[in-house]
Design brief:
This protein has one domain. It is mainly α and 137 residues long. It is built from four helices and no strands. InterPro entries: YiaA-like (IPR038972), YiaAB (IPR008024). Pfam families: YiaAB (PF05360). Keywords: Membrane, Transmembrane, Transmembrane helix.
């Protein structure tokens, strides 16, 4: 029987996701960079969050024996790595202070971690609920 994640871990995962996302977005909102630069960094964050959830789902599906095509699995990993690479390239070439670059990098990574953890918790909670329904039948 699968165990549902603890309320503390679920809460910590959501806090990590929102703290990373909100910190990153608030930093962009207050930044003195041009609007197209803000759009670039915002798009990378959204792309990374989607990619992280997709990678987590593909990896979990494969572990549980759910069919995942090799092309989707590969594209998910390429997307995740590409989003990180795009952030690194953007920050490397940005005319920001080192502290700002570090802020964006860590907010980005916190948001990705939060997205993966929230996806995992959601999946674990659903699996535990299905097991509970099966055992009650």
């Amino acid at each position: 029987m699968k165990q549902k994640p603890s309320i503390a871990f679920i809460a910590a995962s959501w806090v990590a996701l929102f703290a990373g996302m909100l910190g990153y977005i608030i930093g962009l909102w207050n930044a003195t960079m041009q609007l197209n630069e803000k759009g670039y960094y915002f798009t990378i964050l959204m792309y990374a969050l989607f990619s992280a959830v997709s990678v987590q789902k593909c990896v979990r599906d494969r572990l549980e024996g759910v069919p995942v095509t090799d092309i989707y699995y590969g594209l998910s990993w390429v997307s995740m790595l590409l989003s990180i690479l795009l952030l690194i390239i953007g920050l490397w070439n940005a005319t920001l202070a080192s502290s700002e670059k570090g802020f964006y990098a860590f907010a980005f990574l916190l948001a990705i971690f939060g997205a993966i953890a929230v996806q995992k918790n959601t999946r674990d909670s659903q699996a535990a609920a299905k097991d509970t329904v099966r055992s009650n039948e």
